């Protein structure tokens, strides 16, 4: 058995990580909070070598009910959703689905993987009917991305087309409605266009106007845990995983969360949460979503019990 966890996507296969497959039914504890998972681009809810394995691992080691979010009615639809179903639609669907799950009525912890991180944060901010205790984001793109260096899960030719489309047409109505990644494309060279044209990220980051419900709901979290992968070659810039980003007007120099207007103006309430010790910054020495089971246990289990 491999002791490594590898959630980096390659071409049409999703090579994520492998946990020991459990064939016996797990008896979950009613005293611990359930866990909800949201997969990233190029993955699905239930591949046994990815989030299906994570589900079994968490059920076994923490002994809780685990729900891995599936968009659509099949694995194929779920896979396609990572590219073609607008995040706003996905968040609405998931809000309705989780709100009717009786096993989640008492609250739950949530883990987002890659783009599933910002989708889960949007769920926290928008879906007031849910009771989410801790939010953990692994390799999330909280300030968006500017570049697709390895362009996972698709062919190099298609990858190059995606790059060209995003560079020159990310903020057109067509691309904002057609391609999921365009909705969190953040061009630091054209901040005004990003703020006015982004149909997802600029909204959940309160950059168009301050939605007080978003602030109120986010501050209900007990902990907001962000994990950054220090050797990430997928997410650009990698500091977006900690809510940092390029300084406006250029794409070389990075500013941390506390230097951004989102924090300084407290547009999302992150400064207040930071003052209350609700924000946790964790790092992992690995490429995108690559970590060991031991790292997962040592660093994240305390936020899942």
From TrEMBL:
Annotated GO MF terms: long-chain fatty acyl-CoA hydrolase activity; palmitoyl-(protein) hydrolase activity
Xref: Pfam families: Palm_thioest
Enzymatic class: hydrolase
The keyword Iron is annotated on this UniProt entry: no
Catalysed reactions, semicolon-separated: S-hexadecanoyl-L-cysteinyl-[protein] + H2O = L-cysteinyl-[protein] + hexadecanoate + H(+)
GO biological process: endocytosis; nervous system development
InterPro entries hit by this protein: AB_hydrolase_fold, Palm_thioest
Gene Ontology annotations for the cellular component aspect, listed alphabetically: extracellular region; lysosome
Keywords: Disulfide bond, Glycoprotein, Hydrolase, Signal
Protein name: Palmitoyl-protein thioesterase 1
